[in-house]
Write a structure and sequence with these properties.
Shape: elongated
Helix content: 40-55%
Strand content: 15-25%
Radius of gyration: 22 Å
Distance between the termini: 65 Å
Order of helices and strands: HEEHHHEEH
Structural class: alpha+beta
Largest sheet: 2 strands, antiparallel
Strand order of the largest sheet: 1-2
Amino acid sequence: KSPTDKLVVGILTHITTYDNELRRVRMIFGKMESLKRGQTFIGGTTPFGYRVDENKNLIIHPSESKMVKKMFEMYRDGYNTTEIQMMLDSSEFKPRRSKVWNIGTILTMLKNRVYIGEYVWKLKDPHDKTQILEEFSITTPQIISHSMFNRVQKKIERNTKNKGNNSRLYY
């Protein structure tokens, strides 16, 4: 390659990078404006149990929300995530991003505050993902009561602490 070709490629690369960064910033500011106007859904995967209305707000999905309640009730009543997974896999409901329900997804759902009407959207520094630049608290339609959610969180915490305590060491 000639020096001129290298210069042109270098300049075009920088212009493309600059253009992509501007697009990303515009998208983030668009989401922030939507949140400020009161919208509760700004893109991504719709949480199971909800759907999006024409105004881009989360609303309760009648049948999926019943399954969310059942998941929380089952866990509260002593069922484990594998048993909840089997119940969901035998139902008509499919997860948003895969063909079968996975235990990690179920546990994430059981910890998700969106089901008690709370959601926090965080704008993170693109250069330091641990740095939060701005936070928005969003109120969503509530599917699970706070008391149910809190009972399930305590059980999750207890079960997580107990994991591994039942193993024996043999020498």
